[in-house]
Design goal:
This protein is mainly alpha-helical and 76 residues long. The protein has helices at residues 3-11, 29-38, 43-57, 65-74.
């Protein structure tokens, strides 16, 4: 996995919809699964949503915990 992509999951916000303004790493699994069924948007956003869905679906969300802690220290 690309560390820069993982970092983006914690900094990029959902630009539209019910969860507009929420960072991608904090989107609910059922929302991510809906995109997986319906089709992810094109471009970087779609790639990040697909990555987060894969992480969530496989129970790997704890991979983001060290990045969350580091990000929290940088932005108190």
């Amino acid at each position: 996995m690309n560390p820069e992509k993982l970092e983006l999951l914690l900094t990029r916000e959902m630009p539209f919809g019910k969860y507009k303004g929420r960072v991608i790493a904090d989107l609910p699994g059922e929302y991510l699964n809906w995109f997986a069924r319906q089709g992810f948007p094109h471009g970087e956003l779609g790639g990040l949503l697909a990555l987060m869905q894969e992480i969530d679906h496989n129970g790997l969300s704890a991979l983001l915990d060290p990045l969350r802690r580091r990000h929290a220290r940088k932005h108190p």
